């Protein structure tokens, strides 16, 4: 069983990556913050007493469930908006706080531009993946979860994780071929 200090360290460790996953899925910083905050609160409420080794897949399961819930609510909300002739106002001002930090590596402007273009294309491509492929890719490639942990986080079989991950990687390779 983890202590409250271990729990705080764990949440601090996963916070930024969980936010980035939610941001890729929602496209809006405010919505992503809400998703991650809800996931963290629910995780602490339900699983704080579980052994620390189990936290990572459990947290990402909750985070992915919150992202799925957000997609469902947004679909319903947009359906009602279209019925009543209302526009879509997501309130995203386009500011990315991660991009505002100085680069400690001191890269050249040309390489920085190329990396930024690649990052933007990768983000756009990941957003265009089906949700389950997006989840499998982010949990496996970005979070470094193994197949079994990803299956727990996504509430599916290991075979499904492998299939979704394979399809996501192939789709991203095809789109990002020019950056190789």
What does the secondary structure layout of this molecule look like, with pairings?
Blueprint: H1 4-26, H2 29-47, H3 55-83, H4 109-128, H5 131-142, H6 147-154, H7 158-175
Helix pairs in contact: 1-2, 1-3, 2-3, 3-6, 4-7, 5-6, 5-7, 6-7
Q: Describe it for me?
A:
Helices cover 72% and strands 0% of the residues. The longest helix is centred in the middle third of the chain and has 29 residues, at 55-83. The protein has helices spanning 4-26, 29-47, 55-83, 109-128, 131-142, 147-154, 158-175. It folds into 2 domains: 1-86, Rna Polymerase Sigma Factor, Chain: A (Orthogonal Bundle); 108-180, Orthogonal Bundle (Arc Repressor Mutant, subunit A). The model has no long low-confidence stretch (mean pLDDT 82). With 180 residues, the protein is mostly helical. Its EC number is 2.7.7.6. Residues 120-172 form the RNA polymerase sigma factor 70 region 4 type domain. It is an enzyme of class 2 (transferase). Keywords: Nucleotidyltransferase, Sigma factor, Transcription, Transcription regulation, Transferase.
């Amino acid at each position: 069983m983890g202590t409250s200090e271990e729990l705080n360290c764990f949440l601090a460790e996963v916070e930024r990556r969980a936010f980035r996953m939610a941001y890729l899925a929602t496209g809006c910083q405010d919505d992503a913050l809400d998703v991650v905050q809800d996931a963290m609160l629910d995780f602490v409420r339900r699983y704080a007493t579980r052994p620390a080794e189990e936290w990572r897949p459990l947290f990402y399961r909750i985070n992915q469930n919150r992202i799925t819930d957000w997609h469902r609510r947004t679909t319903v909300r947009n359906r009602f908006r279209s019925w009543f002739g209302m526009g879509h106002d997501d309130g995203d001002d386009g500011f990315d706080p991660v991009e505002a930090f100085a680069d400690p590596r001191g890269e050249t402007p040309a390489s920085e531009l190329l990396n930024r273009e690649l990052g933007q294309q990768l983000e756009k491509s990941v957003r265009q993946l089906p949700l389950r492929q997006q989840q499998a890719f982010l949990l496996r490639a970005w979070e470094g979860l193994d197949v079994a942990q990803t299956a727990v986080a996504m509430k599916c079989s290991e075979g499904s994780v492998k299939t979704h991950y394979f399809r996501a990687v192939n789709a991203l390779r095809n789109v990002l071929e020019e950056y190789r």
